[in-house]
Amino acid sequence: xxxxxxxxxxxxxxxxxxxxxxxxxGELTDLFGISSLVVDNLGVISSINDSxxxxxxxxxxELLGTMLMRLVVDGGxxxxxxLSQSSGVFExxxxxxxxxxxxxxxxxxxxxxxxxxxxxxxxxxxxxxxKAKRQASSHTLQHSELELQHFANRLIVxxxxxxxxxxxxxxxxxGQVLAMIKFMVEDAxxxxxxxxxxxxGHILDETVQRLRDxxxxxxxxxxxxRPSTLDDLGLxxxxxxxxxxYEDAYDNIKLERHLNVEEAEIPxxxxxxxxRIVQEAMNNAAKHACASTVAVSMLSDHGNLILxxxxxxxxxxxxxxxxxxxxxxxxxxxxxxERAESTGGFFAIKSAPGSGTTVEVxxxxxxxxxxxxxxxxxxx
Length: 380
Ligand SMILES: Nc1ncnc2c1ncn2[C@@H]1O[C@H](COP(=O)(O)OP(=O)(O)OP(=O)(O)O)[C@@H](O)[C@H]1O
Ligand SMILES: [Mg+2]
Fold this sequence. Notes:
By secondary structure, the protein is an alpha+beta fold. It contains twelve helices and 13 strands.
């Protein structure tokens, strides 16, 4: 966001670089939504922009030639000081002005001297910011800082969930296999020392098979953390690949896919999150739903990317699981929500006992598409 000081800095620079007439100053500040007016050294308004006139409830022409002091309810002495140039310092000050309807506007005034080239300042540009607006924008700022904090927290929770998953995979999967391998190698070694070569050799052959399993587990875990196909082929082929494996594993489930979105439309930072959500929702359908049909859909609609995973199974009381502590039950639902929300998506789960389950996530796509050959920009 552009700061007022930056705008003023730019204006000062422009003023010194190029000749701007006073109305042009007004237009420039109007462009930034800033109210401004120019007074001469007697305080007569020689130029005022639309925003400032509108704030006071007048038309521009009605205020030209008026003494600014006539509109002042409070803060007149600061304005007199400025006009008399007694201090020679152009400090910001507060002013209360009354508009046409008698409505008072408390404004924060930033004076910018206008040098007419002969070194003598004869006009002053006054940039006015309504105090209510300043407070509102500072509230908005505080609000967005809070939002940012929540966003960061959610991101951390999503990462925590991921770490827990990796940690239990390591412990329960690869850790168990390695413990078994250690036991088998010790057993084989003992038998070899006892001269039972054939028995020892047989156990070592078994160990090799267990080691292969462990290597498969490592490969699976690594691909679960980030499937290499996501980078190599893209999200759609990765989902397609997952769907094929799913159909092989659960031949009692009819799987429908409606992936009506171009790979290029999907923001890169969403791909891994979308894939994880698809995996988890499809696994839940297979594990819990007793469904005969599962449908995965993805489409882009009016600037939204909409992901859906629907099953026609037994359903459940989704409210009961909403926002529950991570450790109390499964982490799948919570993890999906965190992945969606930490990437700016809106997560919804619709389910009720007996009526199937739908997981839906919507992301707003903010991509800016440059139209070929023109400077026009189209924002989705
Ligand atoms: N599609 C579904 N159909 C029916 N019940 C579901 C469905 N999805 C989730 N549930 C219910 O919600 C509970 C919580 O789901 P969640 O994915 O959070 O945990 P989980 O699948 O049990 O374990 P984890 O995902 O951590 O391996 C499930 O145990 C199940 O009772
Ligand atoms: Mg689950």
